Amino acid sequence: MNEPQKIDPSRIKSFIRRQGRATAGQKQALETHWDKYCLSPQADFNADRVFGRQAPLIVEIGFGNGDSLAAMAEAHPDLNYLGIEVHRPGVGHLIMLLEQRGISNVRIYHHDAIEILEQKIPDHSLAGLHLFFPDPWHKRRHHKRRIVRPSFLELLNKKLAVGGYFHAATDWRDYAKDMLNTLSADGGLKNASPAGDYCPRPDYRPLTKFENRGLRLGHGVWDLIFLKQ
């Protein structure tokens, strides 16, 4: 009898591709400006060449519709931003925002973020990595799909420069506690919170419409910021 094939926990996907329908504006942005902003997962990545300059590089995993990423890039033109998202309409929406506002310091991968980090991002090169409101996979049997797990922290330690930071935010208390425990157990990362728990929302992270609505209803949001030692 053949033994069941063992699954490497580090290879379990933390996302499900939900393509959805793109609006007419998103479709036009994808068709017209894809090559201007989107990078090929098959090509080599060199940040200085891609952005045409040397600047600190910030990666955002799962930027959703791109509202926050566009706002951060517009407010901080001295930084380079690399957004990674598997939801194609979201990529189209971000491209549309970049074109409308003339934002030039953002590039995009429409691909699996773990693969991009592993294969394209040089070690010790990131000034920061953002993970805002990831899928909490709230059912216990799905917790293994949560992106913040030991294999992710191993990758995080490799890619962050010394003094670089990892910033996660979630509106699920259980996931916030889970991330806090996982991150705190890593010897290469130091919690930026003096109390050893959560940080106030930094000014650079914009409030989303969804988050504002939740706050008005009394829902909590937890920010975690850890520094590479």
Structure description:
InterPro entries: SAM-dependent_MTases_sf, tRNA_(Gua-N-7)_MeTrfase_Trmb, tRNA_methyltr_TrmB_bact. It comes from Methylomonas subterranea. Belongs to the class I-like SAM-binding methyltransferase superfamily. TrmB family. Keywords: Methyltransferase, S-adenosyl-L-methionine, Transferase, tRNA processing. By secondary structure, the chain is an alpha/beta fold. The protein contains eight helices and seven strands. The protein has helices at residues 24-37, 47-51, 67-75, 88-101, 113-119, 150-159, 173-184, 209-216; strands at 57-61, 80-84, 106-109, 126-132, 160-170, 189-191, 222-228. It has a seven-stranded mixed sheet with strand order 3-2-1-4-5-7-6, with helices on both faces. Residues 1-8 and 12-17 have low confidence and may be disordered.
Total helical segments:
8
SSE order, one letter for each helix or strand:
HHEHEHEHEHEHEHE
Name the beta content range. Answer: 15-25%
Helix content: 25-40%
Which class of secondary structure composition applies to the elements? alpha/beta
What is the CATH C level class, in words?
Alpha Beta
The largest β sheet comes out as:
7 strands, mixed
Distance between the termini: 49 Å
Overall 3D shape: globular
Gyration radius (Cα, Å) is 18 Å
Strand order of the largest sheet: 3-2-1-4-5-7-6
Look at the structure and name the CATH superfamily.
Answer: Vaccinia Virus protein VP39
**Please, what is the average pLDDT?**
89
Please tell me the CATH architecture by its name: 3-Layer(aba) Sandwich
Poorly predicted sequence stretches spanning 5 or more consecutive residues: 1-8, 12-17
* CATH topology (fold) name: Rossmann fold
Domains counted in the coordinates: how many?
1
Q: What's the β-strand tally?
A: 7
